[in-house]
Amino acid sequence: MEYITPQETSLEERVQVSYTLLLDFIGNLLEINPQRRPTAREALKDLSLLFPYG
């Protein structure tokens, strides 16, 4: 039997952007623990959404 083990990569490698605020925002949304993960309302108030990316 053969198992396929995914490579461990960082969020920075997967998303491939250099905006630290955006990476922090995405990382917070991907938090597994729902007690630590922001609600939708909290996420929409995040200051990183105000930054002009691009």
TrEMBL record:
Record's Gene3D superfamilies?
Transferase(Phosphotransferase) domain 1
User: According to the lineage, what is the superkingdom?
Assistant: Eukaryota
Name of the protein in question: Protein kinase domain-containing protein
Species name: Helianthus annuus
